[in-house]
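Hey L., structure's done. Input below.
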Amino acid sequence: MFRNIITIVLTAILFSVPAWADGNMVKAEVVKVDKSAGKITLKHGPIKNLDMDAMTMVFRVADPAMLEKVNAGDKIEFEADRVNGAITVTKIGKGH
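Output:
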């Protein structure tokens, strides 16, 4: 019986992980990509983890290589956080 309980708990945790990983993803449209400055302008929905309303703004990116994957007009999902005091895009994914 104890083994069954452990199996149930572990299964529940494993199926919950994707929900945790995507908890801070925000839908956005790329307005501008400035590769030389390492910045991206996004028209985005609310960013809950930063208590930020929907708006259009310029973000720094954690890794300039992320900018190679996007162009103005692309629909994306992203995560942002405060890095060294600046609001920074930490993850970019296609689609919405």
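The chain has one helix and five strands. The longest helix spans residues 2-21.

-- N.
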